[in-house]
Design goal:
By secondary structure, the protein is α/β, with parallel strands linked by helices. The longest helix is centred in the N-terminal third of the chain and has 23 residues. The structure holds nicotinamide-adenine-dinucleotide. The site of nicotinamide-adenine-dinucleotide (NAD) has 25 residues, from α10.
Length: 304
Amino acid sequence: MVQQSAPMTARILDGKAIAGRLRRELAEHIRRGMAGHGRAPGLAVILVGDDAASQVYVRNKKNACAEVGIVSEDFSHTLPADTSQQHLLGLIAELNADARVDGILVQMPLPAHIDPEAVIEAIDPGKDVDGFHPYNVGRLAARAPRLRSCTPYGCMKLLEETGVDLHGQEAVIVGASNIVGRPMAMELLLAGATVTVTHKFTRDLAAHIRCAEIVVAAAGKPGLVKGEWIRDGAIVLDVGINRLPDGRLVGDVEFEAARQRAGWITPVPGGVGPMTIAMLMANTVQAWREHLGDIAGETTGDMP
Ligand code: NAD
């Protein structure tokens, strides 16, 4: 769903509305699937410690589950900050073996004494609905994605909404983290774009952005991407979420200046954020269908 703004300014990619539509489609899908299979998808959400932001994220994810008909509360766990790694790995092993659980999500960041890689690798890749397990990252890199990282997957859905053919597009990603920049590069490459990944060692970010027909900003630095750098008509996806001292939430892109030049742009909040949660729901439904034997692993056609 898109909104037409005033002439000469970018069209807004309304992630909130698009995510709402996706959730309604998933709810309908679950309702029909339940009739045949007799059980709803199950998502276990594990929170370790009492990080305030993590508590909000976990609550939003559980609310989204309830809205679409994914069972989450029954399988979810809130553990104290001093939980041992061994205990957490034991819980993951139990959830891996529980046939009612289709997805397992361990909210990051974990307390410092727990190794996040060991935790991610302990999750059954078929239940890794965050798409962080090296198996799923490797599947995407090898052009045969299975469960895809939620934020880049959500960005691809937003790009789909523009109707723009991605083949041969010049795409520039700002940031190279495991959860956003890197899988985003693999998604765009898979879609046939020509991809540049910039990061903190990049010498001239402006020069890269000026050439970009697609910009994905994910550095976590407010105002890093200047509006004047944006190429006319570019698609700008702002993944960044930054809290300013005055309390406002902003992205990594100078929104007002960028929208004077871009063809499409996501707002913050209400752009990429809601899509991330919608794709977590989509991944859980996909894992459920795989576990019930509805579908085999996904394959993709016409790849570069
Ligand atoms: P991160 O800190 O792990 O990675 C940041 C990346 O930005 C690094 O690769 C770093 O090299 C790069 N970077 C730093 N300075 C740069 C510069 N000057 N030029 C180019 N690159 C630079 O962060 P992350 O976990 O990938 O998150 C990035 C942002 O996205 C944060 O604001 C985070 O809150 C947000 N985020 C949003 C969602 C969502 O659903 N909307 C999901 C995940 C992350």
